[in-house]
Design a protein that fits this description.
The protein has 286 residues and is α/β, with parallel strands linked by helices. The protein contains eleven helices and eight strands. The chain has one domain: Phosphoenolpyruvate-binding domains (TIM Barrel). 43% of the residues are buried. Bound molecules: 3-methyl-2-oxobutanoic acid (KIV). Its EC number is 2.1.2.11.
């Protein structure tokens, strides 16, 4: 059974999502190749989705939620069920952006058939429009298999965090000519197989530029190049929720500092009995 409920506006805490309007579509994203840059951010929860949605072309329910939401050491332990639950929340909180859900490690690599089963489960459970999977030439047959069967696929090449145990860390990729050539070939294979867009993560800039010129679908950079067809960041990173972030993150706010200051004020108000005040308590009826 699908978990794609709509928001219950009778619930006092639920901010209603504007009435459904025409959502952007996967073909409309693909058609933006070489045009106005595509804006994508991660979202994992309904309220965050509501706040980001009007400004974004795509919302990515990234498996980075393993680290950002659950404090896991990497994305490797993330499960299909976690992605389905958060994906459904993000679809409930959005009405404009194309929602893309990450396929977690272990849910797609074994065979195209296994990938289809996992991807179909994610789309049914969430109402999202597309999935993203990591990998290049080895994953091209899977990208083709899914794309030809009604599942739009976003590729992800360069630094692929699910392969951290093979790569040995999260450093930028493509510093040697052999590695650079492989990343360009990976992107070409995934594009040729039918990916509607490709995330290029953590590569030296000329690689991102070469791929962007070479492939027919939009490229979405993260630690790549401003010349990509779009950009993605983890929302919590760009909002300044974490002290330590990758070099490629630009902090557009200091949410950590603002949350700390607000909670410090709250704690002081509780301790001095300034909170709750007259406006926050229920007076008896006369
Ligand atoms: O999981 C994620 O958030 C991602 C982006 C960083 C591209 O894959």
């Amino acid at each position: 059974m699908s978990t794609t409920f709509t928001i219950d506006t009778a619930t006092s805490r639920a901010t209603s999502t504007p009435a459904p309007m025409k959502r952007l579509t996967v073909p409309s994203i693909r058609a933006r190749k070489g045009g106005e840059p595509l804006v994508m951010l991660t979202a994992y929860t309904v309220r965050t989705a509501q706040l980001l949605d009007p400004h974004c072309d795509m919302l990515l329910v990234g498996d980075s939620l393993g680290q950002v939401v659950y404090g896991l050491p990497s994305t490797v332990p993330v499960t299909l069920e976690m992605m389905a639950a958060h994906g459904a929340a993000v679809v409930r909180g959005s009405y404009h952006a194309v929602v893309v859900v990450d396929m977690p490690f272990g849910s797609y690599e074994a065979s195209p058939e296994k990938a289809f089963e996992s991807a179909a489960y994610l789309l049914k459970q969430t109402g999202a429009a597309a999935v993203k999977l990591e990998g290049g030439q080895a994953m091209a047959p899977t990208v083709k298999f899914l794309s030809e069967r009604g599942i739009p696929v976003m590729g992800h090449v360069g630094l692929t965090p699910q392969a951290v145990n093979t790569l040995g860390g999260y450093g930028a990729r493509g510093r040697s000519k052999a590695e650079a050539d492989k990343i360009v070939a990976d992107a070409g294979a995934v594009a040729e197989a039918g990916a509607f867009a490709i995330v290029i993560e953590g590569v030296v800039e000329p690689i991102a530029i070469a791929i962007t010129h070479a492939v027919a679908c939009p490229t979405i950079g993260i630690g790549a190049s401003a010349q990509c067809d779009g950009q993605v960041l983890v929302a919590e990173d760009m909002l300044g929720l974490f002290d330590r972030t990758a070099r490629f993150v630009k902090k557009f706010d200091d949410l950590a500092g603002r949350i700390s200051a607000a909670v410090e004020t709250y704690a002081a108000d509780v301790r001095s009995r300034a909170f709750p005040g007259a406006e926050q308590i229920y007076a008896p009826k006369d």
